[in-house]
């Protein structure tokens, strides 16, 4: 039988979210009902609310979640009732051209639940990133459930479901940072902090954090930054371009006159990407993990793109494979080697999502986490 639970929805563009009854159907043959224990408040949820993803309202928000499998469909083999899982939005299909090329991190046809959750009146809900976890229970495909060590704090490991994995993976998977390399990270929100922590975990010797907030820069030191730069405090020609930009020169000065081996842009603006491009060393790597908006354009001298060599990459979900990465980073967290718990700034009830969005806009938290 279907179950009625409380969930947080967005009914229309820019409207405040609502806590209301939602109906979770019985699982299809490959579906799973998960009892949600925690769900991080991610900027993507705010983008859904504000129409930045699509216009398929109403949305069931929430996707950065951990919980316990409550019931399973008749063909489910991946998990069993009682498993502690982190939810993911990369349930690889194994059949698309990316999967067949051995690149499942780029899977073009990821799985979602076969049935729709609804409002009490039967209106179908569009779950955020195919998950919809600002709810007491949600329905997902079995492949969206990744089993991790149940000793872990749900509010911490649930963050692997999106933001932390995006930044961590941008550094480790996409940037391929190795021991002894130098790294700069532009933007010290949750994703940028995770990239800093990932660079430290990978063995980078110098990690430069760049942000306009002195408070964030100070906090970045706790995640592994060895140096910090506030571009707003720099002199020089604010209108300079290329390597003459003050923030680029500041990075080069720290590194003895050369650029960084890897630069991660966790902001996603043309200006920050241009800075990242010139901050890197010759043949260095630039990783874009901050998400641009559709109207943005980028202009760079074509000769500079050729002459500097190296690689310019975008990072989707940190190029992660949940089945490989989530259990591994959970264990590193439990061993005290990766600071997942430090990303949790506040734990709130399911009725506090709208206020958590406000704090996110103010930049006063890395993550608010809804606990159920």
Notes on the protein architecture:
By secondary structure, the protein is α/β, with parallel strands linked by helices. The chain folds into 2 domains: 3-161 and 339-371, Quinone Oxidoreductase, Chain A, domain 1 (Alpha-Beta Complex); 167-315, NAD(P)-binding Rossmann-like Domain (Rossmann fold, 3-Layer(aba) Sandwich), CATH 3.40.50. Helices cover 27% and strands 25% of the residues. The chain is built from 11 helices and 18 strands. The strands form 3 sheets. Strands 3, 5, 6, 9, 10, 17 and 18 form a 7-stranded mixed beta sheet that branches. Strands 13-12-11-14-15-16 form a 6-stranded parallel beta sheet, with helices on both faces. It has a 5-stranded mixed beta sheet with strand order 7-2-1-4-8, with no helix packed on it. A hairpin with a 7-residue loop joins strand 1 (3-10) and strand 2. Helix 4 runs parallel beside helix 5 (190-202) and helix 7 (246-254) runs parallel beside helix 8. The two termini are 22 Å apart. The relative contact order is 0.15. The mean pLDDT is 95. It holds the Pfam family ADH_N.
Note the main attributes of this structure:
372 residues; alpha/beta; Quinone Oxidoreductase, Chain A, domain 1; Rossmann fold; 7-stranded mixed beta sheet; 6-stranded parallel beta sheet; 11 helices; globular; EC 1.1.1.306
